Structures are given as structure tokens and as C-alpha cells.
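Budget justification aside, the reviewers requested a transparent look at the raw inputs and outputs of the sequence design task funded under Objective 1. We therefore reproduce one unedited record. The lines immediately below are the C-alpha cells for a 264-residue chain.
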């Protein structure tokens, strides 16, 4: 059983829902990323999405695009991120999901990718530009290494497509709250609840909702009908705005607690 599956099972047994924060690795730098992972875990993160910076992040909005640009100024990639995960793993057992595009993974390793991710302590991979129709080989390699593969379900997905996404996913299914790129919105689209219900009709996997979740009210709303809420842009924007603050990591931890409803 993977850490991601174990965490969702624990949450289900206690009647709780998952809070899944996203940060971009290397923004503002790798040392801070390492500290942020620990802080997110201490603040109550159930799964941490660790974004791999990419030069053409077509699924990401301007805030996360800027984070990738800042991180890539040091020419860093997967090979630089995995040692961070490996060090974190010595004292932290919160599941870590790499949120990436296919190209950075191909640049890192043409073979034994699953084994290298597993050795570093990565628990799952979400590749935004990998479609299920082209994922057989990749999913098989990840399954062999006991790495979860998370796929995106969109409002435009047909029921047939949702069933396919459910078959290729493990750990959980990531429901995109709206079409388009990541970013903050004033409210969560009303049709998301029905989309989650459609996903549940096709798979028994937990369902998490992301893209546009940016307030504590959004999180509470999503928790009504889904198993987890993903918050990315709101945290990345805070990192951007407070990058020079000596207490940046503490500020992010406080924001996470606020988003989870633990602080005013």
C-alpha cells in the first residue's frame, strides 16, 4: 500500500478530508523548498504536491508560470529535486506527489525512472500532459515501483473518459474544478459537485478537487462532496509576495492552517 492510499484510508476512518498544498520546487530556492515541505507537513498537509518547474507550463496560470521561471534561473530539474525528497523522508512521512510535465522526467531518466523515484521517497506522479491513451508503458513502470499515478478529470470529460482515467489512476483522481489553467477564482464552479459524482460512479478511488481553490470557504465547500481539496496558486502567490521575508516559511504554514480552517 502506498503512502497516498494509506493516508486517504486513515482520513476516511476518522471522517476527515485531505488538504493538499502545492508548491513549486526551487521557488524561491531549493533550501527553502525543503523547509517548506516540513512546514506544510507540520501545518496539517495530508499530501504535498511538489511542482517540477518547466519552461512551457501550458496547464499553469501566470502565478505558477512565474514560479517556474524563477526556479529555472538556477537550471535545476528532477535530479536536483529528488535529493530534497530523500532528505525530507528521514523525518517526514507525508506523501509527496510530483506534479510535472513529461519532458522533465524524460530528461532525467530514460529507464528505471520508477525505481529512482521510489528510492528517493516519491509516492506518486501526476503528469499534466500525459493522456491515458499513451500511458500504458509509464503506468506499468510506476505500478512495478509502487508509485501512484494520478490523472486529471476535467469538466469536459465524458463518462467513458472518466472510466479510463479511473483505471489508469491510483492513489486518487484529481478533478479539475474548471476548464483552463490554474489560478485563483472568486468561487468554485457549481458543476464541480456533479463532476465529482460522475467520477465516483466510475471508480472507487478518492477524489480531490483543484484549480481555483484559494480560500478557507472554498476548501470547506469542496470537502462537502470530495475527499480532498488542492490549493496551489494561493500558496505560490504568497511565496512570491513574501519571498524576501525572513519568516517566509512560517507565513506559509500560517496560511495553510488558515485555509484548513484552524486559524482566523
Amino acid at each position: 500500500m502506498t503512502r497516498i492510499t494509506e493516508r486517504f484510508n486513515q482520513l476516511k476512518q476518522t471522517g476527515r478530508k485531505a488538504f493538499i498544498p502545492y508548491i513549486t520546487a526551487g521557488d524561491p530556492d531549493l533550501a527553502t523548498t525543503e523547509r517548506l515541505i516540513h512546514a506544510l507537513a507540520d501545518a496539517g498537509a495530508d499530501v504535498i504536491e511538489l511542482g517540477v518547474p518547466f519552461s512551457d507550463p501550458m496547464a499553469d496560470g501566470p502565478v505558477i508560470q512565474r514560479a517556474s521561471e524563477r526556479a529555472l534561473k538556477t537550471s535545476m530539474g528532477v535530479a536536483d529535486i529528488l535529493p530534497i525528497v530523500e532528505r525530507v523522508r528521514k523525518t517526514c512521512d507525508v506523501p509527496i506527489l510530483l506534479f510535472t510535465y513529461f519532458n522533465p522526467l524524460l530528461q532525467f531518466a530514460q529507464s528505471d525512472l520508477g525505481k529512482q523515484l521510489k528510492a528517493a521517497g516519491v509516492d506518486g506522479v501526476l503528469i499534466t500532459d500525459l493522456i491515458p491513451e499513451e500511458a500504458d508503458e509509464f503506468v506499468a513502470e510506476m505500478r512495478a515501483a509502487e508509485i501512484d499515478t494520478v490523472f486529471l478529470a476535467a469538466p469536459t470529460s465524458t463518462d467513458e473518459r472518466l472510466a479510463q482515467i479511473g483505471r489508469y489512476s491510483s492513489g486518487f483522481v484529481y478533478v479539475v474544478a474548471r476548464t483552463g489553467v490554474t489560478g485563483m477564482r472568486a468561487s468554485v464552479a457549481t458543476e464541480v459537485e456533479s463532476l465529482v459524482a460522475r467520477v465516483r460512479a466510475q471508480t472507487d478511488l478518492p477524489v480531490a478537487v483543484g484549480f481555483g481553490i484559494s480560500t478557507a470557504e472554498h476548501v470547506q465547500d469542496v470537502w462537502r462532496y470530495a475527499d480532498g481539496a488542492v490549493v496551489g496558486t494561493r500558496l505560490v502567490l504568497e511565496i512570491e509576495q513574501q519571498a524576501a521575508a525572513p519568516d517566509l516559511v512560517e507565513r506559509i504554514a500560517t496560511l495553510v492552517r488558515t485555509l484548513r480552517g484552524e486559524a482566523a
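The longest strand covers residues 18-24. Residues 30-42 form the longest helix (13 residues). Computational costs for records of this kind are itemized in the attached budget.
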